[in-house]
Design brief:
This protein has 382 residues and is of the alpha+beta class. Among the domains are: 40 residues, no CATH class; 110 residues, no CATH class. Helix content is 32%, strand content 29%. The protein has ten helices and 19 strands. The strands form five sheets. A six-stranded mixed sheet has the order 12-15-16-17-19-18. It has a five-stranded mixed sheet with strand order 1-6-5-11-10. The mean pLDDT is 83.
């Protein structure tokens, strides 16, 4: 397999690629690609991290922040107790896929350490004999009143639970990736063997909900990571005879989810009422929808508004689009201050005073190259 490595957010690069690979990169929303001739292409505006596979080529997109930090932010946004740096040893040559695979093996192994979870699940089926209870409406609607086969509903004590289905489906999805390391592939195959009797979730189907309690709590980390794997590795684009598949993440979404989750956690501990992605309208006719990342409310009134932006939007005609957007939020909620939180290096800390209406827009820069504890501690003081 031919390999090429790109860097997230890097400067425009000139590379040699087959036409089919060059066409797949923008089709998967990874970057902008323009031809130079003679099989060479310029690649710019790389907005995702991960890996894609197409036509015998592997294109790896490395994050510009440490993989350990990116992995931590991913996990914290879903459940702050799941991932920490010590959960997995990350080598200097490890990719994001390597990191996720190793952590999945570890967490799935812990979930299954006391055997597969079993519980009573409800099934409906057509059978030549009656067990459980008859599904009368289905019998009339599907069978026209015929006695057999019988439409029945029954409970069964089984290993085919939502928790095990998520683990198996994530295992199979990882095994589909040709770039998985041999050692990880072997370990994940062993996991699938331990999950005998479990049904995989069909591609494109909704993932089943899981409510955690004392009996399945050991599955919590593995289920969370399974959802992450299934949500970000399901893409597959086919054009003619050429299929492109991958395992990709939007870094901006990881950053924004992390900042929102960390701020909500920090502010909630201080008794603040925090609302994420709360929709409203800017105009009287309710045509202009606004949805700030974070609203702080007290006694029914908005006290503060915060938007997380991995990097500043730089539109040609509107180079300060983020500031204009925050100004609209402040006008809507009659606030004197608005807050934009960027990743350090993407925007310098600064403030814009808009007069009238006497509003100050504060731009903060969050240093992502810190240990998790320091990163979380800095959230309240960005």
């Amino acid at each position: 397999m031919e390999r090429i490595t790109l860097k997230e957010g890097g400067f425009e690069a000139s590379v040699s690629l087959p036409d089919v690979v060059a066409a797949a990169i923008p089709r998967l929303g990874v970057a902008n690609v323009n031809p130079l001739g003679d099989g060479r292409w310029t690649i710019s505006g790389i907005s995702k991290v991960g890996v894609i596979n197409v036509d015998g080529w592997q294109v790896e997109i490395a994050p510009k922040i440490p993989i350990a930090r990116l992995f931590f932010m991913m996990g914290y946004a879903r459940d702050r107790t799941i991932w920490q740096d010590h959960d997995v040893a990350i080598g200097s040559d490890d990719t994001l896929l390597d990191t996720i695979a190793v952590s999945f093996i570890r967490q799935a192994g812990f979930a299954l350490s006391r055997g597969m979870l079993q519980s009573y699940e409800t099934f409906d089926d057509a059978a030549p004999l009656v067990r459980g209870r008859m599904d009368i409406p289905a019998q009339i609607g599907r069978r026209g009143g015929l006695a057999l086969p019988a439409q029945i509903i029954f409970d069964e004590f089984t290993v085919d639970t939502a928790e095990n289905q998520l683990l198996l489906s994530a295992s199979l999805r990882l095994l589909d990736l040709p770039t998985l390391r041999t050692s990880d592939r072997t370990a994940i195959k062993k996991l699938t063997q331990r999950l005998e009797g479990v049904t995989a979730i069909p591609g494109g189907a909704l993932l089943p909900p899981v409510r955690f309690h004392r009996l399945n709590d050991r599955y919590k980390s593995a289920v969370g990571l399974s959802r992450l794997i299934l949500a970000n590795s399901s893409l597959e684009h086919r054009k003619g005879a050429n299929a492109a598949s991958g395992f990709l993440f939007d870094t901006w979404r990881i950053f924004e989810d992390f900042v929102s989750a960390a701020l909500r956690e920090s502010l909630s501990r201080h008794g603040e009422s925090v609302h994420l992605q709360s929709s409203s309208y800017l105009d009287q006719k309710e045509e202009l929808v606004i949805k700030p990342d974070i609203l702080l409310r007290s006694n029914g009134s908005v006290r503060a508004v915060v938007d997380a932006k991995y990097k500043a939007e730089k539109h040609g005609r509107f180079p300060n689009a983020d500031v204009y957007q925050m100004l609209a939020y402040c006008v809507k909620y009659e606030l004197k201050d608005g807050h934009l939180v960027y990743a350090k290096g993407e925007e310098d800390p600064k403030s814009y005073v808009v007069n009238p209406p006497d509003v100050t827009i504060h731009c903060h820069a969050l240093n992502l190259d810190q240990a998790p504890e320091a990163l979380l501690a800095s959230i309240l003081f960005t």
